[in-house]
From TrEMBL:
<dbReference type="InterPro" id="IPR005759">
    <property type="entry name" value="Nth"/>
</dbReference>
<dbReference type="InterPro" id="IPR023170">
    <property type="entry name" value="HhH_base_excis_C"/>
</dbReference>
<keyword id="KW-0411">Iron-sulfur</keyword>
<keyword id="KW-0378">Hydrolase</keyword>
<comment type="function">
    <text>DNA repair enzyme that has both DNA N-glycosylase activity and AP-lyase activity. The DNA N-glycosylase activity releases various damaged pyrimidines from DNA by cleaving the N-glycosidic bond, leaving an AP (apurinic/apyrimidinic) site. The AP-lyase activity cleaves the phosphodiester bond 3' to the AP site by a beta-elimination, leaving a 3'-terminal unsaturated sugar and a product with a terminal 5'-phosphate.</text>
</comment>
<dbReference type="InterPro" id="IPR003651">
    <property type="entry name" value="Endonuclease3_FeS-loop_motif"/>
</dbReference>
<keyword id="KW-0479">Metal-binding</keyword>
<feature type="binding site">
    <location>
        <position position="197"/>
    </location>
    <ligand>
        <name>[4Fe-4S] cluster</name>
    </ligand>
</feature>
<keyword id="KW-0227">DNA damage</keyword>
<feature type="binding site">
    <location>
        <position position="194"/>
    </location>
    <ligand>
        <name>[4Fe-4S] cluster</name>
    </ligand>
</feature>
<feature type="domain" description="HhH-GPD">
    <location>
        <begin position="38"/>
        <end position="185"/>
    </location>
</feature>
<dbReference type="Pfam" id="PF00633">
    <property type="entry name" value="HHH"/>
</dbReference>
<keyword id="KW-0255">Endonuclease</keyword>
<dbReference type="InterPro" id="IPR004036">
    <property type="entry name" value="Endonuclease-III-like_CS2"/>
</dbReference>
<protein>
    <recommendedName>
        <fullName>Endonuclease III</fullName>
        <ecNumber>4.2.99.18</ecNumber>
    </recommendedName>
</protein>
<dbReference type="InterPro" id="IPR000445">
    <property type="entry name" value="HhH_motif"/>
</dbReference>
<dbReference type="GO" id="GO:0004519">
    <property type="term" value="F:endonuclease activity"/>
</dbReference>
Length: 212
């Protein structure tokens, strides 16, 4: 895929959705970090329901620590793997209070030092909370990048590096949101909705499916 085609792809995605963002509900970097930590193997809808119960009660690291592990689990028990997630969140809150003044750090190294925070989560926080041009490659972005040939790669790190290299600079900040949403609602895993795709004529997927 050449640069001109990539530029047109992201131009159309921007035209279709000028202000993309995460579907997780959040209002502070800590709320976003909490929501992303809870979102592994869970839907955004399910996480939002849990955080709607949790955040009015505790939405800062110190408040979570004061809430206690058992009460935290009670608030998020509708989410899969909630026991492990609750323990990681408590450990993360303690580190944030003791090392970062209760604030979420804005560097990759500090974020990835937090329990339960890997490269993808760090990228989401850096991009969405702090406006840095990172690329959080999840299963949707991995699929779309390979299927369309925007940035084919054998693993998520390879796809991430290719996207950072090939996505035109003016689109970098919002690119991962566009790709996630495209993979979630149009370029779906089993049977992509090629007939209703705004970039169908630019996509290099050889097995296009003509459905809306």
């Amino acid at each position: 895929m050449n640069a001109q085609k990539r530029y047109e792809i992201f131009s159309r995605l921007r035209e279709h959705n000028p202000n993309p963002t995460t579907e997780l509900d959040w209002s502070t970097p800590f709320e976003l970090l909490t929501a992303v930590l809870l979102s592994a193997q869970a839907t955004d809808v399910g996480v939002n329901k849990a955080t709607a119960r949790l955040f009015p009660v505790a939405n800062t690291p110190q408040a979570i620590l004061d809430l206690g592990l058992d009460a935290l689990k009670e608030h998020i028990k509708t989410i899969g793997l909630y026991n492990t997630k609750a323990e990681n969140l408590m450990k993360t809150c303690r580190i944030l209070v003791e090392r970062h003044g209760g604030e979420v750090p804005d560097t990759r190294a500090d974020l990835e030092a937090l329990p339960g925070v890997g490269r993808k989560t760090a990228n989401v926080i850096l991009n969405t909370a702090f406006g840095q041009p990172t690329m959080a490659v999840d299963t949707h972005i991995f699929r779309v990048s390979n299927r369309t040939r925007i940035a084919p790669g054998k693993n998520v790190v390879e796809v991430e590096q290719k996207l950072l290299r090939h996505v035109p600079k003016e689109f970098l900040h919002d690119a991962h949101h566009w790709l996630i949403l495209h993979g979630r609602y149009t370029c779906v895993a089993r049977r992509p909705r090629c007939g209703s795709c705004v970039i169908e004529d630019l996509c290099e997927y050889k097995e296009k499916v003509d459905i809306g």
